[in-house]
Amino acid sequence: MTAPADFPDWISPMLVKELRQGMRARAFLISFLALQGALILLTVISLSNSKAGEDTTAATVFYWLIICIPLLLVMPFSGLNAISSERKENTLELIFLSRLSPRRIAAGKWLAIVAQSALLVSAILPYAVLRYYMGGVDLIANLEALGWLLLGSAALTSVTIAVSSGQSVVRRGFSIIAFVMILFWLFGLLSSGAFGFALFSSGGGSGIPIWRQLTACFLLAALFLFSMIEFAAGKLAPDAVNHSSSRRLAAFAVLLVCCCYTTLLPGVWWLWLGSAFILIPTCIGAVCEPVRDVPSVYRPFQRFGFPGRVLAMPLYPGWPGGVLFLLIALGVVFLAPHGPFSGLSGAAGRHARLGDSVRLRVMIATAGSFLLPAAVLRLPRVRSLPPAVFFISFQGACGLVAALTSSLAGESGTDGEPLAASIPFCHLLMSGNMASWPKSSVAFSASGEAAATAASILALFIMMIPEWRKIFAMQRAFKRDASKPV
Hints:
By secondary structure, the chain is mainly α. It is built from 19 helices and no strands.
């Protein structure tokens, strides 16, 4: 597979191939024709209503609805089989023979779908201008809304491209459910303004220039895109290629951006909300990743010497390095001056009890929500299960326990709720209802979740000792082989 001679070298042959196939696909053709037909019909209806002096609110709602469906649903969902279809047709080997790296394959597939979405947006522009001349429409706000929709479509497409690298249909089904839930959550979050403009224009009441907020937003969007492309490339690449360290470096970059912006500009608190879409998947993937028995994966860390290797341990592929990465990331989030946990009330006094500090309890519950399933995942009978599926299923079971105990308990909070809240993730979900609990019940649940989190940390550190010995042995063996004369 080679690109035509009239294309520059930086254009991936994968992009050319996918763009040609995508333009002929039914999803794009039906979306394009249906969008054009709906916009023409809407224009005719709007013209007749405007002449009759009727209210055009319903037409405006329908206008944005028919734009959101192809941009936020049809085009992103077309990427769910982007990589799995190559596996089914056994064409990945042929693609790799063209010397395309897994990163360029994933990026080419993503860019091809985004280009199709951009073509749909360009087809909408004449109708946006026509609505402006019909009156009652802010053209600049409409163009900004289209731009944000295109950015959202690109971000959601990167998620589906990353998910499409999985081989199991069941896992992709779970990902579709999570995809839809996140989508509705975003709509609910941004419902106060037209696609988030009220959030950016007001700046949370801080008077921060919009260009600074947009810069931070685009930085997070670029890091999010990079993380999703790296995730898809990591699923395509063999075990000898390391894509885990780059994802963790991107997560550290997200933490740096959020800490710097929220310290200098406290009004951009929403950055931490956006960073969760990068930090949470990276942390889950880090603690679920198995240790690789390939010495060449650890070769790049040899150049830093012993101190450098120790400092780079959180970047080592595999769950031992992932646990260290998780603890460092959580420490930064917990201790950030204007972080997501800074607004919670702290302990009243130096010798205050654990149950009296909402911030400390929520922090321990957040850490335990990652560490407890990671520790259970290391048990002998659980290791054979798919790590990410088990992690999400474990948290889903905890969510069901929290919901059932809360619905069956009385207002006093003594009917099994404190026992269920001893599980860290259940405690995190039920923390909003603990204001009406007795102090003894809150103290019991806080002690339980702290014990579970501490036991998880201890178990993980004990179980990672032989894994680190194995990793260091592979490094020493690789160093001895490299020093032998040829």
